[in-house]
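User: Structure please.
Assistant: Input sequence and predicted structure:
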Amino acid sequence: MSWLPDDFVHPVHVPVPGTALHLRPIREADTPIDYPAVMGSRERLWEIFGPAWGWPAEKMTYEEDRVDLLRHEKEIAAHQSFNYALLNEEETALYGCVYIDPPERTGSDADISWWVVDDLVGGEEERALDALVPRWIDADWPFRRPRYLGRDITWQDWLALPPVA
């Protein structure tokens, strides 16, 4: 892909400092823990991602989630985009995701966003993830102008930008 150097190797395990959580690329096999995390926080996630992505649908089925995770897994393998799951040490629970995507709108070389489940909102784990993501992107990814959606630009302002040609 033109948005990443040919020799780029994406991280496969990223500890979240000060927590027992880590990030790793999401897989189709994560559906049993992803589905309840997403649907358990669906209303808040729709408020964040719905206008831009139409996700997560109100009646998203388990099978639709599985297909979505398979698509993410294939995109990661092809270095087209990245979805990292926020997991506990045993990888028996999913607590959120980090998305690293090629820019859809002008003004950056990567669009990055993330979320945590409702139970972690405002807590130590969310603060640790919020602190980690920009440092991790700066240290381990080849971007010069990453854009943090919903952080350094509102989703509404991002949607108003011209699409990448």
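The radius of gyration is 15 Å.
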